[in-house]
Amino acid sequence: MSKALSLKLEDRIFNETESVIQKIRVPRNAYINRALDFYNRCQKRLLNKKKLKKDVALLKSDTKKWSEELSLLEDLPE
Question: In this structure, what DSSP letter does residue 75 have?
Fold first, then answer.
């Protein structure tokens, strides 16, 4: 399913887009769809990278705590 959309582009962006689509002979709608799809995938990767960094930091913190607790247990007499 497709959605109709009205948007305003800066003159510079519009002119560059028109120049490119004329050279590569792609309909404007298809070009904009591809561009947005590409941009969305890039943004999702950045969001995933941020989440992964946060998760890794939490894991490091938890691992340090577990290691400290384990060393306390190892020091107990049997």
Answer: T
pLDDT tens-digit map of 6-39 = 999 999 999 999 999 999 999 999 999 999 999 9
Closest CA to 29 of 7, 49, 11: 7
% of the chain with per-residue pLDDT over 70: 96
Model pLDDT, residue 72: 73
Residue among 54, 50, 72 nearest 62 (CA)? 54
How far apart are alpha carbons 73 and 70 in whole angstroms?
5
Closest CA to 5 of 25, 33, 26: 33
Contact, 19 vs 9, CB < 8 A? no
Task: Tokens for 22, please give them.
Answer: 């004329």
With CA atoms as reference, report the closest residue to 3 among 37, 35, 29. Answer: 29
